[in-house]
Design goal:
303 residues; mainly alpha
Length: 303
């Protein structure tokens, strides 16, 4: 029966529908224990081959078998539909009883595996979001959808991800939702490769926070490589933000280097804040370190 569910899903699911009307018969009792798996496998296969047939069956029969169709199975059905028709997949969320499921939108978006498929998926997601009434529900759906895009783009690599994002013409909220799910997953030198892109594509006020976070991640993974990049970086706001992140990150194990970078910052709030943070993180576990920290503090009027 399980093999039938994979290769002839309509026949398998039809047999169960018919047998369930005659529960006393031996044929039904033989398959009762595997009913959930047969229905799930049949629905997933049907959705892969003919999405509309799967949706039609769910509309007419799901009430009878509701207890045997898990949320995970419904999300896999959505994924299979989305692989062929993302617009239909979004339209089917309610038909599958997943309108309150916070993972349903992400399940659909994950079906897009190439840049071209991501383009189609982005258009379908935008249409779905525009049709939503409540702001809270729309924001949750946006976070789920763009969070799934973020996972795909991290896996696609820096150049592929940046190329797709450049062509996607993302608006402010879309870019916020995408980077919120993406930048925290970037590690080491990969994070460093995004600093220039962030500066070019994200408003200054927000980009400072993004650059600081990315550079901190790079420093934590490889402070030598990050330091070399910082030495070669052109003067400007981006370098100042990176220098602040570097100084604050290395202060606890290399306070001398941290203090030197803090002192390169132009006079102002950023410099004052960074100098104080370096002093606070400066190790004071022995007389030599304690004396050095005190000298640094005195030099900058921290006492």
């Amino acid at each position: 029966m399980l093999k039938l569910a994979s290769y002839r899903p309509e026949l398998a699911i039809g047999f169960l529908s018919e047998a369930s009307n005659r529960e006393a018969e031996k044929s039904w009792s033989l398959f009762r224990d595997m009913e959930g798996q047969v229905i799930g496998d049949s629905l997933i296969s049907m959705a892969r081959d003919d999405p509309r047939k799967a949706i039609t069956w769910l509309k007419s029969e799901s009430a009878r078998f509701d207890d045997h169709i898990s949320g995970q199975t419904r999300r896999v059905v959505l994924y299979q539909i989305a692989a062929r028709d993302p617009v239909l997949a979004f339209q089917s969320i309610r038909d599958l009883g997943l309108q309150a499921d916070d993972k349903s939108v992400a399940s659909i978006v994950r079906a897009a595996r190439t840049p071209e498929e991501r383009d189609r998926m982005l258009g379908a997601l935008r249409g779905y979001l525009q049709g939503m009434g409540g702001a809270k529900q729309r924001n949750e759906a946006m976070a789920g959808g763009f969070g799934a895009f973020a996972d795909q783009l991290v896996a696609a690599g820096t150049s592929g991800a940046q190329r797709w994002m450049d062509g996607a013409h993302l608006d402010g909220p879309e870019l916020d939702a995408l980077t919120a799910g993406m930048f925290g997953k970037l590690k080491g030198e990969t994070a460093g490769r995004w600093i220039g892109w962030v500066e070019r594509n994200i408003p200054v006020v927000q980009s400072e926070a993004e650059i600081g976070g990315l550079f901190t991640s790079w420093v934590e993974a490889d402070h030598m490589a990050a330091g070399e990049w910082l030495q070669e970086a052109s003067a400007g706001t981006m370098k100042d933000v990176a220098a602040q992140a570097y100084a604050e990150a290395v202060a606890q194990y290399d306070p001398e280097t941290a203090s030197q970078w803090a002192e390169t910052l132009p006079a102002g709030e950023r410099r004052d804040r960074t100098i104080r943070k370096v002093y606070e993180r400066w190790p004071k576990d022995d007389p030599i370190n304690e004396k050095a920290a005190a000298s640094f503090a005195e030099c900058h009027g921290l006492h």
